[in-house]
């Protein structure tokens, strides 16, 4: 068996397994694999660069407040990226506007297939984008901790403000 035939057999087996997994759905497994591979590559490069800078003490300096700030920031930025009307131009190539889904949030449907659909699903899912946001924040704490904590404070304050705005509206409606 030559090398080309071996590669063709592996590709054929992968396609068959993907079809068996998908069934009648249109899950873009190749697109998902590309997204996951991109994430892994970015994390690998970031870790390699961080190691080269000898920032080993950065993880040890993570305090409970850093984790709280990181959690609030990740929540706010992931929802902003995935649902905010102002960030809809970032999602427009991958989605179709459906309407409003909540206060200052849009309902969008993913469109396309393959990689386009996979990226669209990533960009419209705050649970999915949160992994990327949290990873970016963690690298920010390694490479630029003061700036990262400052940005985290801003987004955390906005998240808390959002919750207060929603509570205020709910209280007003309760009094009617």
Describe, in plain words, how this protein is organized in 3D.
This protein is mainly α and 176 residues long. The chain has one domain (3-175). 75% of the residues lie in helices and 8% in strands. It has 8 helices and 2 strands. The protein has helices at 3-22, 29-52, 57-60, 64-83, 88-91, 114-124, 126-143, 145-175; strands at 95-102, 105-110. It has a two-stranded antiparallel sheet. A hairpin with a 2-residue loop joins strand 1 and strand 2 (105-110). Helix 2 (29-52) packs across helix 6, helix 2 packs parallel to helix 7 and helix 4 crosses helix 8 (145-175). It starts with a helix and ends with a helix. The mean pLDDT is 89.
Give the tally of structural domains: 1
Low-confidence stretches: none
Beta strands, count = 2
Global Rg: 21 Å
Q: Could you give the distance between the termini?
A: 78 Å
Instruction: Give the strand order, joined by hyphens, for the main sheet.
Output: 1-2
Q: Could you tell me the strand content as a percent range?
A: 5-15%
Global morphology = flat
> Major beta sheet, specifics?
2 strands, antiparallel
Average pLDDT figure: 89
User: What percent of residues adopt helix (DSSP H or I)?
Assistant: over 70%
Query: What sequence of helices (H) and strands (E) makes up the elements?
Result: HHHHHEEHHH
- Briefly note the structural class of the backbone: mainly alpha
């Amino acid at each position: 068996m030559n090398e080309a035939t071996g590669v063709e057999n592996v590709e054929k087996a992968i396609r068959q397994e993907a079809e068996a997994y998908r069934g009648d759905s249109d899950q873009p497994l190749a697109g998902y694999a590309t997204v996951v591979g991109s994430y892994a590559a970015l994390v690998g490069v970031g870790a390699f660069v961080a190691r080269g800078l000898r920032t080993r003490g950065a993880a040890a300096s993570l305090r409970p407040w850093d984790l709280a700030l990181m959690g609030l920031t990740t929540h706010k930025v992931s929802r902003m990226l995935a649902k905010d009307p102002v960030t809809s131009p970032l999602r427009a190539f991958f989605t179709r506007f459906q309407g409003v889904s909540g206060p200052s949030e849009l309902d969008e449907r993913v469109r396309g297939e393959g990689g386009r659909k996979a990226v669209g699903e990533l960009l419209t899912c705050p649970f999915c984008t949160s992994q990327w946001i949290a990873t970016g924040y963690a690298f920010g704490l390694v490479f630029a901790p003061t700036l990262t904590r400052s940005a985290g404070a801003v987004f955390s304050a906005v998240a808390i403000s959002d919750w207060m705005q929603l509570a205020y509206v709910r209280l007003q409606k309760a009094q009617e």
